[in-house]
Automatic annotation (TrEMBL):
Species lineage: Eukaryota, Metazoa, Chordata, Craniata, Vertebrata
Entry-linked InterPro entries: Yip1/4-like (IPR045231)
Protein's UniProt keywords contain Transmembrane: yes
Official protein name in the record: YIPF7 protein
Membrane topology classification: Multi-pass membrane protein
Any one of the GO BP annotations: endoplasmic reticulum to Golgi vesicle-mediated transport
Name of the gene: Yipf7
PANTHER family: GOLGI MEMBRANE PROTEIN YIP1, PROTEIN YIPF7
Domain of life: Eukaryota
Gene Ontology annotations for the cellular component aspect, listed alphabetically: membrane; trans-Golgi network
Localisation: Membrane
Family note: Belongs to the YIP1 family.
Length: 253
């Protein structure tokens, strides 16, 4: 037991005293204060030969911005994005103003056609007029939806081939389908009149011939203005009259 106490005393025995610790702390604090005073003095006095702007000596710079706050509000950014994006209907290729202008051009064969508008591949109006023609034929007791779509497709392909042979610039399938579909509107008027009275007679034949001439004249006028084919309107009107004559036969008989 005595040996263990002697070992414990020897193990914890040291020459380091509390007075030495206080002196070390005081000396460390004095050295730290000395370094801080020298550092502050060096910051206050600029180095020799260094250029210091006068505005920095007069007043410190001021910052007016705020941290984590955008320059533009989210509402302003969303409004700018909406202003740059076109409307959804225009992205889908549906322009009601152009549809209305094309319809008025078809209804008035003597009105000059705008080639920039008529050269568009807009199929909204043609689909509506084809459905209207099939619906009016159905109201008259004639189920001819397949004939309407079949003759429309074959007629568009034939007119596309013919116009590419006659014109220099050429034409697309969409443009041909758009023009022929819009010019089907007078045929819808003929099929609507067939719901009210029978067209199998002299008055019905005269009305059918008038509608055929109306459709072919409107289509040939639009094709000549869109493809710059002046002087060839009668050549284009003849195949158009043959195509619309088939629709007239469906309506009359």
């Amino acid at each position: 037991m005595s040996n263990f106490e002697q070992f414990q005393f020897d193990f914890y025995q040291s020459n380091y005293t509390i007075d030495d610790q206080e002196e070390g702390c005081n000396s460390y604090g004095s050295d730290k204060n000395l370094c801080e005073s020298r550092k502050s003095r060096a910051e206050k006095q600029p180095a020799a030969g260094a250029f210091v702007p006068s505005d920095m000596l007069l007043s410190p710079p001021s910052y007016t911005g705020q941290i984590l706050q955008p320059a533009c509000s989210p509402d302003t950014l969303s409004q700018l994005d909406y202003a740059e994006e076109p409307p959804l209907l225009e992205e889908l290729g549906i322009n009601f103003e152009h549809i209305w202008q094309k319809t008025l051009t078809v209804l008035n064969p003597m009105k000059p056609a705008d080639g920039s508008i008529m050269n568009e591949t807009d199929l909204t109006g043609p689909m509506v007029f084809c459905l209207a023609l099939g619906a009016t034929l159905l109201m008259a007791g004639k189920v001819h939806f397949g004939y309407v779509y079949g003759m429309s497709a074959i007629g568009c392909l034939a007119m596309h081939a013919l116009l590419n042979l006659m014109s220099v610039s050429g034409v697309s399938h969409g443009c041909v389908a758009s023009v022929l579909g819009y010019c089907l509107l007078p045929m819808v008027i003929l099929s609507s009149s067939a719901v009210v009275f029978s067209l199998q007679g002299i008055p019905g034949t005269v009305l059918a011939l008038f509608i055929i001439g109306w459709c072919s004249l409107s289509a040939s006028k639009i094709f000549t203005s869109a493809l710059a084919m002046e002087g060839q309107q009668l050549l284009i009107a003849y195949p158009c009259a043959l195509l619309y004559g088939l629709f007239a036969l469906l309506t009359v008989f």
